[in-house]
Design brief:
The chain is about 65% helix and about 0% strand. Bound molecules: fe (ii) ion (2 copies). One of its GO terms (molecular function) is phenylacetyl-CoA 1,2-epoxidase activity.
Length: about 350
Amino acid sequence: MYGNDIPEQPGHARLLDEVAAAERDLTGRGLGGDGTEGGADDYFGAVIAADGKIEPRDEMPEAYRKSLIRQIAQHAHSEIIGMQPEGNWISRAPSLKRKAILLAKVQDEAGHGLYLYAAAETLGVDRADLYEMLLDGRQKYSSIFNYPTLTWADVGAIGWLVDGAAIVNQVPLCRCSYGPYARAMIRVCKEESFHQRQGYEILHVLANGSPEQKAMAQDAIDRWWYPSLAMFGPPDTDSTHSAQSMAWKIKRFSNDELRQKFVDMTVQQAEVLGLSLPDPDLRLGEDGHWAYTQPDYDELFTVIKGDGPCNRQRIEHRRAAWEDGAWVREAATAYAKKREGATV
Ligand SMILES: [Fe+2]
Ligand SMILES: [Fe+2]
């Protein structure tokens, strides 16, 4: 079967075990909190304290609701904008097998967007409004998707590093305090794990191919390494949303903790691939963690603000897709109205 003929990746199975454990806890616990009596605020506090799940029907502080909408919408936008850099290679994939795999992967990302917009809608927002906020820049998406995909090896580097960083970020969200988000994340993480594995496999094949192929793989890693590290967000000292998100148990680990986990895992995997990470200062410390060079956070903020290499292109493409799809939305609305009329 695809992907089974390549070496195991250190650390990868452990992430999937964490997802499985979160899923067991979720189904074992049932919906809602621990049934604590009391006012709405007390109920919310009690559910959070007991590590329960807040559900759409539950009263929740307005700030919690708003913070979740911001985070889930940003996540949903990232999934669908993230289809573009790799979609760029579907027509140029080097074989029919590679094309089929990449098509399935890009389609998965559309599905992730769908789960997440649906999760956001349980908080009382309309996905059309979220979409508008993406298009006019009021809501963001992950800065990583503003970098170009220059060669086929970039598809491998994105799968290995970008989907890999996404999993490390998202596995703890399987235990997020908001039920619909946690449940969406369990499914997303299982699929992301497959994406990460396909990227690793592409790089493994290239790394063991001709010298030119190996050089192409190394060049892609050199370009994607630091933007991938930046995916975890600013350092803890500059992170504005972290403390409150941790108190609400939306977030479980800090940006720097997750970044370290990713570095530790990836250094070992790079060794198996026989490729190197572009950081001459990587050192294994006595605490068992790898010391590494921080990404350029000024560049991260420049890209977040809209001045990355591909920001304009990504949003223009998205806007064109939205406008081209207007007739589908109109037809669906007209059809729904007609059915409504028929049943009254
Ligand atoms: Fe995804
Ligand atoms: Fe993915």
